[in-house]
Amino acid sequence: MKDVLDELAAARRRMGTATLPAGEAYTIELRRRYDADPDDVWDAITSPERLSRWMKPVTGDLRLGGTFELDGGEHGEILRCDPPHLLRVSWMFGPEADAWPGTSEVEVRLSPGPAGDTEFELVHSAAVGEPMFPTYGPGAGGVGWDLHLLALAGFLGDGGTLDHERFQASPAGREFSRRSAVAWGEAHLAGGGEPGRVAAAVEATTAFYVPGDGAQA
Predict the structure, then answer these.
(1) Residue 102 sits in which domain range?
(2) pLDDT exceeds 50 at position 216
């Protein structure tokens, strides 16, 4: 359990703002360090074979201007690709999302760390007014990204894969998701969220990721 929670604590979280093609957006931002060089991290997030081992299987025309689709339904266009430093994609979920282009983007930035490691930054921008935020706040996407970056840490560390469904149902996974929801609530407060709405969002996020446990958020 301690190692899993140490991985959660390794990330810095914040909310910010951005401008997307569709207009004003909020951002959820994760920063952490991985004990691997940028070329290795870049390959892990762009190679279909390696991506499927820590995130989800991916298909598509995986080049600048091409499109991708993950096994869970997330899909989009590859908007920028500067190996091994920056990847930006549009990020849509479900076929109905295609009716609102330019409303969600994910950007990953990699830079060399001081010891041959990698400074990793992920920024997910979503248009203000998207339907999940009023209920879940930044935890709507933030807890999911925390889970994926935990899996990436394990994969880069020893090549291991994480069974996401089994982990999320385990005591360690439930505690990880619970604490992630709280951490995103803290980022929401620091970003100017109203305390009552933040508390409600943390409770809703916890109930979603840790069914039957929302009252403990």
Answers:
(1) 2-216
(2) no
**Confidence band (pLDDT; 50, 70, 90) for 2?**
low
Could you give the angle at which helices 2-9 and 139-158 cross, rounded to 10 degrees?
120
**How many whole angstroms separate alpha carbon 143 and alpha carbon 179?**
9
Q: Which residue has the higher pLDDT, 101 or 148?
A: 148
**pLDDT tens for residues 114-137?**
999 999 999 999 998 888 899 999
Q: Residue 40 corresponds to which tokens in the numbers above?
A: 């290795």
Distances, alpha carbon 48 to alpha carbons 43, 69, 170, in Å: 9, 11, 28
Question: Is the Cα torsion angle 127, 133, 139, 143 positive or negative in sign?
Answer: negative
CA–CA separation, 99 and 210 (whole Å): 31
Q: Give the sign of the dihedral formed by CA 166, CA 167, CA 172, CA 174.
A: negative
**DSSP states of 93-111:** ESGGGGGSTTSEEEEEEEE
Cα-to-chain-centroid distance, residue 93? 14
CA–CA gap between residue 72 and residue 58 (Å, rounded)? 9
CATH number at residue 118: 3.30.530.20
Please count the structural domains in the chain: 1
At 95 the pLDDT is 78
Find tokens 């990699």 and name the residue: 110
Taking the CA atoms of 55, 95, 104 and 39 in sequence, report the sign of the dihedral they define. Answer: positive
